Amino acid sequence: MQATIVTLPGDGVGPEVTAAAVRVLEAVAGRWGHTFTFHEALMGGCAIDATGNPLPDETLRACEQADAVLLGAVGGPKWSDPSAPVRPEQGLLRLRQHFDLFANLRPVKAYPALAEYAPLRADLLRGVDILFVRELTSGIYFGPRQEQGEGDSAWDTMLYTVEQVRRVARVAFEAARNRRGRVASIDKANVLASMRLWRRTVDEVAREYPDVTLEHVLVDAAAMHLLRNPARFDVVLAGNMFGDILSDEASVLAGSLGMLPSASLGEGTFGVYEPIHGSAPDIAGQGIANPTGTILSAALLLRHSLGLDAEARAVEQAVEAALADGARTADIASDRSAALSTDAFTEQVIGGLAVAAQP
Question: Counting Cβ atoms within 10 Å, is residue 228 exposed (0-12), middle (13-18) or buried (19+)?
Fold first, then answer.
C-alpha cells in the first residue's frame, strides 16, 4: 500500500511523541512492504507564532491531499489566555469542522502491568476495555453563543439535530457489533431538551441493531459508575462535552494520560489521529514523554484510514508486550531513575513488531 500522512507535531512534547509514532509507522512500512510518505505542517501555538493563524491555509491544503493526519499536541502557557482572539485550540476545532470529523473514538484499556499506577483497586480494573464514541462537531462547543466582554452575562447553546445524533450513534452501534454488543448512551434527558432529542434518536437507531443491547445512563451516574464499576461499560456514546469530560475521567484507569489514543473520523476513511494528552510543556525537550498514546493513535490510523488491521494489531501487541516486559517511561515508572526515554521506549516497541505478528 502507498499512503500519504500529514504530521502536525504542534507544541510542547508534540514533536517528540509524533516523531516516535512516525518511527513506528516507518517500521511497519518496512516490515509489511508499504510505502508511507510523510509531510510535516504547522498547527497550534507554533503556527500562531509563525503565521498568526493556528491552522494556516497551507496546512489545510496539505491535509486535504493526505490519507490521514497524525497530530501531536497543541497549546501551552504562552497561548493560554482564554480571552485571546487567536488560540491554538481554534485550529483543532476548525480542522474537525472542515473535514466534518463528527465521531471521536477514544479507547480506554486497563493494562494489568500498570494497575499499580491507577488510583483504583486492581480488582476494579480487571477486564476494563471501553470505547468512548464522542460526538465531535456539534453540541455546546459549536452552538450559538453570546459573550459580552466584561459584562455580567454570557451563554452557550447545546444544540443537536436528529441527523447529528443519528450518524454518531450508528458509529457506536457498529463498533459494539465487533466488541461485546453493548452501548451505554450518556445524556441528561431529565433536565435538558437537547438530551431528550438525543435519547429519542438513539432509541430509533437502536431498533436497527437488535443484536446490540442499549442502556441510557445519566451523565452524573455515568461519572460514578466509571469509578465504581468501570468494567460494566463496553461502548460509551456521548455528546461533545459529556464525552470529553467522561473520557478524560476514564483515562486514569489506564494509569497515565500518556497511554491513551484517539481517532477523529467522518463519513469516509480520512481521519485525524492524536493522543488525548496535552502538550505537557513542563517536560518538553527532555526526551522523557510517554509516546504510547501517539503510537496507539498510529495503530488506529492504520486500521481506520488505511484498512491495515493486521498491522494495527501488531503495533498494539508490541506496545502491550513492551509494558509486560517492564518498559516504563517516567510517568508510569515506580523507579524514575530506571525509566526509559521516549526514544528507548519506542525502540522496544519497534523491536516487538518483529514477534508481534507474522506478515
Answer: exposed
Whether 265 and 134 have beta carbons less than 8 Å apart is answered as no
Residues 194-220, buried b or exposed e (16+ Cβ, 10 A)? Answer: bbebbbebbeebbeebeebebebbbbe
Per the annotation, the verdict on 244 as an active-site residue is yes
Tell me, yes or no, if 220 is annotated catalytic.
Answer: yes
pLDDT tens per residue, range 106-120: 999 998 888 888 888
**312 is a domain residue:** yes
At position 233, the amino acid (one-letter code) is: F
Beta bridge partners of 236: 132, 184
pLDDT tens, position by position, 200-238? 999 999 999 999 999 999 999 999 999 999 999 999 999
Q: What's 64's DSSP letter?
A: H
Q: Which of 100, 109, 117, 188 is catalytic?
A: 188
Contact 331, 290 (CB under 8 A): yes
In a domain, 108, yes or no: no
pLDDT interval class at 53 (50, 70, 90): very high
Q: How many domains does the chain have?
A: 2
Looking at 220, 282, 309, 325, which residue is catalytic?
220
